[in-house]
Amino acid sequence: MSSFIFTSESVSEGHPDKICDQISDAVLDTYLAADPEARVAVETLATTNKVVLAGEVRGPDEITPDVIEQVVRKTVKNIGYEQKGFHWKTLDIENYIHEQSKDIAVGVDATGTKDEGAGDQGIMFGYACKETPEYMPAPIYYSHAILRALSEARHSKALVGLGPDAKSQVSLLYENGKPVRTTSIVVSTQHDENINQAQVREIVRHYLEKVLPPQWMCPDDKLYINPTGRFVIGGPDGDAGLTGRKIIVDTYGGAAPHGGGAFSGKDPTKVDRSAAYAARYLAKNIVAAGIAERCTLQLSYAIGVSEPLSVYLNFHDTTKILEEQVAEKLRSFMDLTPKGIRQHLQLNRPIYQVAAAYGHFGRVPTEKGEFSWEKLDLVDRLKAAFL
């Protein structure tokens, strides 16, 4: 189809599932800050005034239950929850984190005769396209951008009356395979009880017009702001949250495959996370180098095995360069073993909580090492090899 409508959604940092993702990654960052070789797999559940943690870790004893409790409270406070049914000061925290299984450690750890293996089997996908300057699909990019604009205004106090919990959904019309405008937009946002729906609509529309390109706003009758009519009770008090339930929001908004594994709460020996970052890194550099206008890349792994079992590329008929030709040489551009990925992208650092809301991809690399997988430092080598 050359002309079609495609839709993606995003959720804010105050969405119940995203709260859990951020808590899990805040715990991960705490361990990595104390020991870059720590092993962490932490899941979080949030409901009315309660947070439950479970999972496995191997790290320094200084990370006590009291330390983890303070990490949870600080994360919830920074998101902005101070409501009766979910307050950072009064919420109850249950911690069931325990030591990592020795059977898993034996399969993953390097020994004198064996390289470090993947932390689990699995398939991971990376994707990039030329729809936005960030090489992201436009529907998920603008879905994120809407909620980030509202969040930044709320945190800066430029915007009052809206709460932390919000969702967005953007439907874009594509003509000749390229996005040209929105056909409908949905935004549901938590608000104070004294704010009426006409006021909410006016506030949200203002930020939509700031985020969207000129002439992209949908017709007014296709702009759905709080379509239920009221959204005062939000966050985990309104709906329970779990780590890992927003994996399509985390990646490409459904415009590309997802391997099935969630990212948050997992240290970078887990290829669910690190190999997905590597796949995005390679796909983005391939598109930025001009080798193709779209690129889907898949990696597959087996638990305890270091080298990927397969490397798959699809350029979606956007170039005359053969996928097999590029795939054969990718391993010379990047060591795709779990250890090689971590070293190349410098992943053994406390850099993950910031990625747990508004997408792991299409973000700007920072001096702290956050979003290192978004760098374009392979472009020149790829051009020299294939163009």
List keywords for this structure.
alpha+beta, 4-stranded mixed β-sheet, 32% helix
Low-confidence stretches: none
Beta-strand content: 15-25%
The overall average pLDDT, rounded, is: 94
Q: Report the radius of gyration as a whole number of Å.
A: 21 Å
> Biggest sheet, open or closed, and with what strands and sense?
4 strands, mixed
The number of strands is 13
Walk across the major sheet and give the strand order. 1-8-9-10
Distance between the termini: 29 Å
The percent of residues in helical segments reads 25-40%
Could you give the order of the helices and strands? EHEEHEEEHEHEEHEEHHEEHHH
What general outline do the C-alpha atoms trace? Answer: flat
- By helix and strand content, what is the structural category? alpha+beta
* Helical run tally: 10
